[in-house]
Write a structure and sequence with these properties.
By secondary structure, this protein is an alpha/beta fold. It has a single domain, classed as Macrophage Migration Inhibitory Factor (2-Layer Sandwich), CATH 3.30.429.10. It has three helices and six strands. Strands 2-1-3-4 form a four-stranded mixed β-sheet, with no helix packed on it. Strand 1, helix 1 and strand 2 form a beta-alpha-beta unit. The radius of gyration is 16 Å and the shape is globular. It starts with a strand and ends with a helix.
Length: 127
């Protein structure tokens, strides 16, 4: 159940945001071999005076924060980063215009569909 928060400048259409979320979801699924579609997205939009980004960045800048239940190895993360770079390039977003932050809160901090993350991890391991 990845939770993805995207911070961006205002101006994208609803269709552009939906396509962006779909491409990010598909990239995470492919990179981390996730079969389900239980993804949650939040989009935070900011005016130019409310989001300060590196000087080399443009109005296309994205801060993509991804919370995952299951930790990943560094090689798995590298695959995600490379594939995310390719996916964002389809939106004309270059590497100087995005930052990806992964976090893996402990499983006991999750409660999903009536189960703790520990129970979900145990169930997925037994399948």
């Amino acid at each position: 159940m990845p939770i993805i928060t995207i911070s961006m400048f205002t101006g994208k259409t609803p269709d552009e945001k939906k396509t962006l979320c779909t491409d990010i979801k598909n990239t995470i699924k492919k990179s981390f071999d996730i079969a389900h579609d239980n993804f949650h997205f939040r989009i935070n939009e900011y005016n130019r005076n409310d989001l300060y980004v590196p000087e080399s960045s443009t109005e296309k800048y994205l801060l993509i924060e991804i919370q995952l239940l299951k930790t990943r190895t560094f090689p798995e993360k590298e695959v995600l980063y490379k594939q995310m770079e390719e996916a964002l390039l389809k939106h004309s977003i270059l590497s100087n215009d995005f930052c990806i932050v992964l976090s893996f809160p402990p499983a006991d901090n999750w409660f999903i569909r009536g189960m703790t993350g520990i129970e979900i991890n145990k169930r997925n391991t037994n399948q």
